[in-house]
C-alpha cells in the first residue's frame, strides 16, 4: 500500500518521479484544473499540448508527457477528471477518483508520485487521495508484491480537514487492497482454514477480536447450511466472527459476508468456463473483513461485528445432493434444489447467528446470483426488509462512489420457496432469481431488525482490462460503501 501525505508547498517545488495534474472537461475543450500552482513556462507548454492533441479531459483519460519546462519531475501526467463545474459531490467526485486513479495506476513503475489536488475543498482532497490510493495497487504474483507506486505526495491545502481526509483515504486504500489481495489469491492457497489464518495475522495489534468455528463446532452449533455446502471438500468449512466493540457505541451493526473460496457448483457442476472466476466467490467475506478492520483503525464510535461464512463448494462422494434437507442455525429446515445455489446457505446461517445479538441493523454482502449480472451488470443490487434502511445503504454507496441500485422483495414471489419436505426450498424458479435469493435470506433475519442485502456478483471482479482506479481481477467493491454506511451512524 502506498504511503500518502499532503503538503501545501507549490507544485513546482514538489519532488517526485512523476507529477499528476488534473485536466477538466469543458464546452470549449479541456483546461488545467484550478489551483495547480505550476510555473508559467510549464503552463504555457501544457496548454499547447492540450490544444495540439485536442485533449478532452474525459474522466479516466490520461496523457503522459516528458521534459516539461521548469518542473523537476521527468514525467507529467494530465489526468482527465471530467466536468467539475464547481460541483464537489456525487458523480463529479467519482470522476476525480477515476481520473487520478487511472493516472497513478499507469505509473506503477515509479517510486514516488506527486498529485496536484484540483481545488481547495476537503471533498476534492478526499476524492483525489482516494483515487490515487485505489490506483496504487499491484496484483501480487507468486508471493511477491506486484508493481505499484510506493509513495504519493498530494499538493494542496494541508489544514486539519485535508490531513484527516488523506488519512481516511489511506485507510480506505489499505482496506480495498486487502480485499483485492484475498480475492486474487489462487484457490489452492486461499481456502477456509487459510482465510482464517490471514485474519489471525491481520487482527494482531488491533482492537478487533477474532473467533472461528471449526467443523465440529459448526455441527454442534446447528450450522447445517454451512456444513452442507462444505462437506464435499477436503478443506473443511469455517465461520469467522470479527468483533470491534468501542466503549459507548452510537450503534451496533452486523455485517455478513459470503465466503465461498471456490465454487465448482458442487454436484450440480458448473460449465468449465463458468469456473474461471469462481475463486472470487468469497469477495463479500473479504469486503466485510476489511471493513471491520478499517472501522477499528479509524476509531469510529460504532460497534461492528463481521460474520464470514467460509466454505469450498466441491463435488465428491460426500457432497450434498439435490433433495437433501438440512437444518439451519435457529432450527429452520431447508430443501436443497441446486447445489450451485450454495452462497445463500452460508449466509442464512450467519444472518441467523448475527440476529441472536439483536443489532441495530444487519447488512450482508455477497456474490450471490447470476441474475444480478444479467439485470444490472456492474451495478450492485440492494434489497431490504425496510425501505428507509435500503435508502440509507444506497445513499452511503453514492457518497462512496460505488454504483448500487434499489431492488424490491415482492411478496408474491415468496411461494416459489415453498417445499413439501422442509420449511422452505432454498431456490425459486428462473423468474426473479435475484429477488427470490433475497427473499430466502430474509427468512433468517431476526424479527424487527432492519436488514439489507447487497448482491455484488457483477462488480466484485473485473475480468476485462483495467480502467480508472480499478485493476484487472478483484476490485474490492463494497468496502467503501460499508465504511460510509457505518460513518452515517457517527
Summarize the structure.
The protein has 2 domains: 3-180, Leucine Aminopeptidase, subunit E, domain 1; 190-487, Zn peptidases (Aminopeptidase), CATH 3.40.630.10.
Total strands: 20
Portion in strands: 15-25%
Could you describe the largest sheet, including whether it forms a barrel? 8 strands, mixed
Structural class: alpha/beta
Report on the structure:
The protein is α/β, with parallel strands linked by helices. Helix content is 33%, strand content 21%. It contains 13 helices and 20 strands. Strand 15 (380-384), helix 11 and strand 16 (404-406) form a beta-alpha-beta unit. Helix 2 (90-105) runs parallel beside helix 3 (122-135) and helix 4 runs antiparallel to helix 8. The two termini are 27 Å apart.
Chain-wise SSE layout:
Blueprint: E1 3-7, E2 18-24, E3 31-32, H1 40-52, E4 62-66, E5 75-80, H2 90-105, E6 112-116, H3 122-135, E7 151-155, H4 160-184, H5 192-203, E8 208-213, H6 215-220, H7 224-230, E9 238-244, E10 252-263, H8 283-298, E11 303-313, E12 325-327, E13 333-335, H9 343-355, E14 361-366, H10 370-376, E15 380-384, H11 387-400, E16 404-406, E17 424-425, H12 433-442, E18 451-455, E19 461-462, E20 473-474, H13 479-487
Parallel strand pairs: 1-7, 2-5, 2-6, 6-7, 10-11, 10-14, 13-17, 14-18, 15-16
Antiparallel strand pairs: 2-3, 4-5, 8-9, 9-11, 12-13, 15-18, 19-20
